[in-house]
Amino acid sequence: MPHDTNSMYGRRRVLGGLITAGTFAAAGCIGTDDPAGNGGNGNGDGNGNGGNGNGDGNGNGGNGDGNGNGGTEMAGSIDGWGWDIAARSLQLTAEAYEEEHDASVTVEEFGRSAMKDDLQTRLASGSGAPDVAMLEMVDGHSYIDTGSLTDLSGHIEDAGVYDDFVPGVWEALSTEDAIYALPWDIGPTAVYYRRDVYDEHGLDADSIETWDDVLEEGQKLPDDVYMLNLPPGDLAGVWRYQFRQLGNNPFTDDGAVNIHDEDSVTIARTMKELHDAGVASMLEGWSSAWFGAYESGEIASLPSAAWMEGTLRAELPDTAGDWGVYKIPAFESGGPRASNWGGSSLMIPAQIEEPERNRGWDYIQWSLATEEMQMLMFDEFGLFPALETTYENEAFDEELDFFGGQPARRVFADVAQEIPDYRFSVDTPEVSNAINTEFERMLRDDLDPEEAVMAAAETVAERTDRELA
Amino acid sequence: MREQRRKDAVWRFLTYTFVLAATVVMLVPLYWMIVAASLPQELFIEFPPRLYPGTSFFDNFAALQERSNFVRSIGNSVFIAVVYTIISILLCSMAGFAFAKYEFRFKEPIFYVILATLVLPIQLLVIPLFLMMSQIGWTDTFRAIILPWLANPIGIFLMRQNMQSIPDALLESARMDGATEFQLFYRIALPAMRSSVAALAIILFLFQWDLFLYPLVILEDSANYTIPVALAGLEGSQRVYFDQIMVATSLAIIPLAILFLFLQKQFVSGILAGSLKE
User: Fold this and answer.
1) Measured distance CA(A153)–CA(A176) in Å, rounded
2) Cβ–Cβ under 8 Å, residues A151 and A179
């Protein structure tokens, strides 16, 4: 969950957040689900808590009066793990949850890789894991494949929340017949651009629809100003959002390597054209030089995702008002312009006993499947909701000073609904490594795009013992 | 004669130049760490970087201390490392003494089995150790961090090699004078090993000081965190508070530096001891 917080941004919107949250409390009753009503489901299967029968129909919507203490199977206290602002947003929703329910939720904040190390050890050893934990979508399948997560599909079905989320997120969290986590936030993509730089050199953001347009407009810039940056250490990140944009997947349904597909060649060729035309710089992403170039306007546009807003506000406060966003360019006129970069979810480890599991799910549902809580986290920490039902909220139409008055969040909300499915797997890191290596060689040593893509595919096939599609 | 002297001078000049260059290469990151610790985050990400210290060290430290009680973590690390080092030195020297100076059945095989455990990476041991500790209810305790590593194979090996240089005749005559076996170890062998013990102290202290994955898994309450675990907690997802991390790492090297300065002389001769005295 690559996000960022910024106290100014957060604080400034707290008030607004509380007000909208208030509105939602009312709206929620009419809308999809009443969080309180689901909380007290009498949990029909009070008897056998032997195995981890997940699909069990816990008598949903029984008493409707709310407080979770109605069900005998609900634990009184649970703990959750997350990192950074994700953990802090969980603390927010936990406070709200505790006010409405007779239960306590303790959220612990970790460092990102520290939490992964600790959590994986505890999952592998079958004991000591938290009741609820954050799971990045990119890691989804590597965790699912170890069999250490609880199948939540029964709960999700009973709560009837499946369709409330944007459709493109489920693939990363489920197998054919089970769902292991509830989506939290996502990273709909868009291009951030410096309005002032575009204006100064006569570039027209509205006319950009395809990567060819980017190339054409970019050539209007002087030699020492770049249209965009291709980070040498994360060309795979660029490749991945573009491959997903084209609705493609790194592996076919039978598991064959598919990264040498025609779409992949198109992406490679486009990248190389931008590079060879001198339109793209090659600075390491997140480096001080990189931040500096965006601060000074030396690089005019930044293809990224919704969470980048928080980083820009925090790190480059002097550029406030100079930014704008447009959807990422298509590869051909009229082609798809939506993709996703990043995102996370909440899961429950398989080792968690039934009372904690029920309480954990209740808390997860409260935090992620209610508009009120999702908007609270969005307002306070900029976590872009995966909960599609929130997009009707007027907060998305607010004209933001940071973007020179553009209602930028509407752009992201529109993109979010179009995000294609994407299949991450345990071999995702192999794909990233191979793409990074070969694409960097392609740009630096002037290799042929077809050859670069093919070489990457062969490397992945060899390392993961898969066939080429 | 003069020719020789000139040659020596040139040679010495080259040596010192090389050593000096190597020292600079090693010191630059340390220098940058200290500079960065004293800069506010805005200046840290500035490019080109600023190369002289700023004045924000204490502000950064205050922010760090507010986020994670780092002073407490330093205390935890020092406590764990000191206790571990003392007990482990004692155990390793006793084992080393036994392997060097006593004859018993299966002595060689046992020694090689102990040496063989060197090939087991810590990552492999973490899960079984975590299970064991949670079953006996030791999670989140310092003793769980200290105990499993006390019998350190490198330490046993080092002490055995060095103890072999103690003349058997010396031990024999002490026995004649009525010394108990423990007195042989404590009064004669151990004092003779002062420089090896100093070297071992640094090795063991450093081992425990740097231990990360295992304490990360065992320790739960952040008040119990050791320095590496607390440092890992400072890493967010995007926003990395480099200023605070630099303050933390600057502070984290101080106890090590003190220890090394203190034992430096013995350390070098202790490491060389086994190879010279045979």
Assistant:
1) 11
2) yes
Same-domain check for residues A366 and A250:
no
**A442 contacts chain B (CB < 8 A):** no
Please tell me whether the interface predicted TM-score (ipTM) of this complex is above 0.85: no
**Each residue of A294-333: b (16+ CB within 10 Å) or e?**
bbeebbbbbbbbbbbbbbbbbbbeebeebbbbbbbbbbee
In a domain, A380, yes or no: yes
Q: Is residue A279 part of a domain?
A: yes
Write out pLDDT tens, residues A286-325.
877 888 899 999 999 999 999 899 889 888 999 999 999 9
- Please report, for the domain that includes residue A369, its CATH number: 3.40.190.10
3-state secondary structure of A80: strand
* Helix ranges restricted to H, B177-241: 181-183, 190-192, 194-210, 213-218, 227-233
Backbone dihedral angles phi then psi of residue A441, each to the nearest 5 degrees: -60, -40
Which residue's entry shows tokens 């909701």?
Answer: A385
Cβ of B47 and A292 within 8 Å? yes
Residues A261 and A336 in one domain: yes
Dihedral sign, CA of A166, A169, A174, A177?
A: positive
Q: Tell me if B238 and A292 make a contact (CB, 8 A cut-off).
A: no
Positive or negative torsion for Cα A157, A140, A107, A123 = positive
DSSP state of B38: T
Tens digits of residue pLDDT in B31-69: 999 998 998 877 776 667 788 888 889 998 998 898 888
Domains of chain B: 58-276 (1.10.3720.10)
Distance CA A370, CA A388 (A): 10
Print the domain residue range for A235.
188-340+420-464
Q: CB-CB: which of A1, A108, A125 is closest to B131?
A: A125
User: 């634990």: which residue's tokens?
Assistant: A75
- Over residues A341-365, the pLDDT tens digits come to 999 999 999 999 999 999 999 999 9
- pLDDT averaged over chain B? 89
The closest alpha carbon to A409, from A186, A107, A106, A93, belongs to A186
Model confidence over B112-164: pLDDT tens digits? 999 999 999 988 999 999 999 999 999 999 999 999 999 999 999 999 999 99
Cβ pair A118, B229 in contact under 8 A? no
Are A135 and A236 contained in the same domain? Answer: no
B237 with A3: Cβ contact below 8 A? yes
Domain count within chain A = 2
Instruction: Give residues with Cβ within 8 angstroms of B189, minimum separation 6.
Output: B93, B97, B101, B163, B166, B171
Name residue A81's beta-bridge partners.
A108, A133
Q: Are residues A291 and A159 in the same domain?
A: no
Is position A413 within any domain? no
Sign of the CA dihedral with A327 first, then A329, A333, and A339 last: negative
Q: Are residues A104 and A221 in the same domain?
A: no
Q: What is the pLDDT of residue A311?
A: 85
Task: Name residue A229's beta-bridge partners.
Answer: A281
Cα B277 to the chain's mean position, in Å? 25
Single residue among A385, A408, A431 that ends a domain in this structure: A408
pLDDT tens readout for residues A137-183:
999 999 999 999 999 999 999 999 999 999 999 999 999 899 999 99
B233 touches chain A (CB under 8 A): yes
Reduce the DSSP state of residue A69 to 3 states and report it. helix
Task: Tell me if A281 is assigned to some domain.
Answer: yes
pLDDT of residue A55: 36
Q: Is residue B218 less than 8 Å (CB to CB) from chain A? A: no
